[in-house]
Amino acid sequence: MKAVIQQEFGSADVLTYTDVDLQKVGNNEVLIKVAYTSVNYADIKQRQGKKGANDFPFTLGLDVSGTIEEAPADSAFSKGDRIIAFPIGGSYAEYVVANTQLVFKIPDNLSFEQAASMPTVSILSYILLHQIGQVQQTDTIVIHSAAGGVGSMLVQLAKLAGVQKIIGTVGNLEKEDYVKRLGADVICTYDDFKEEVLRQTNNQGANVIFDSVAGEVTGSSLECLAFYGTLVQFGNSSGKAGTFKTSDVHNSCRNIKGFSLGTTRKHKPASLASVAQKVIDLFASEQIILPVARVFDLSEAAQAHKLIESRKYEGKILIKV
Fold this sequence. Notes:
Elements: E1 2-5, E2 16-19, E3 29-39, H1 41-47, E4 64-70, E5 82-85, E6 95-99, E7 103-105, H2 112-116, H3 119-132, E8 140-143, H4 149-160, E9 165-170, H5 176-182, E10 186-189, H6 193-200, E11 206-211, H7 216-223, E12 225-233, H8 246-250, E13 255-258, H9 261-267, H10 273-284, E14 292-297, H11 301-310, E15 316-320
Parallel strand pairs: 8-9, 8-11, 9-10, 11-12, 12-13, 14-15
Antiparallel strand pairs: 1-2, 3-4, 3-6, 3-15, 4-5, 5-7
Helix pairs in contact: 3-4
Domain Enoyl reductase (ER): 10-319
Pfam families: ADH_N (PF08240), ADH_zinc_N (PF00107)
GO cellular component, one term: cytosol
């Protein structure tokens, strides 16, 4: 089968489109014929060697949409079932293997393209908003990197939940109209968001801030977080660690919570099924639609990565297999 592999860490040019052997299917696993996979920023970090260790060669990618090709007789799946999944060993390939706990059926009216945009970002966003952040309708919230995949989803889910005020940050105000169309009330840049949040809240600060950037953004976020507010930290796309003083937390009764979907897939996979069903229903009923910025062929994975790194896109980047 065709797949994209890499033999070393480096730029997008290390990605190689080639022939590889099919993975072996183990117990409680299914073989999936891939329709689409998405490109996530985590793929970039892994390609560069900034996200854990890897044995070469390896294949990138977190999630897929497609159909079941082979399933255990005692499983809930049959050949031809339409699904989304988090595969084992990467997703940039024609066929992948996944544990049955991380495979979820999708209805016929949900296209493979739209389905591929959702697994990582929608399940992650739903958990961040409702379980980790525990956002209330009366809250003012801040969503950093609001034009990205997770940001786009967080804005829509918050709007759907009736959140009082949604403030989104972007690296470039050219993305302002896009984020406002998703449902954000106020858009600002990383340079001025602290002052704008305080102005919007009469100097009280935001109730919940979602931070996937880290670095200096984390410190500025704490400075405009309300007393008893919550900073939800779930990434460091800046490549730098965020820092804070313990006194900034206990004196103000602020909370800092962390979450990783990757850790949860590994250690608590069964906990994702109910959330997956909720977001699949939202997509199938078109209450949520994640814009797709561009679709690349599998052989064009390197170009997809270059577009992600340019940050000159809005929504999700997909790879058609």
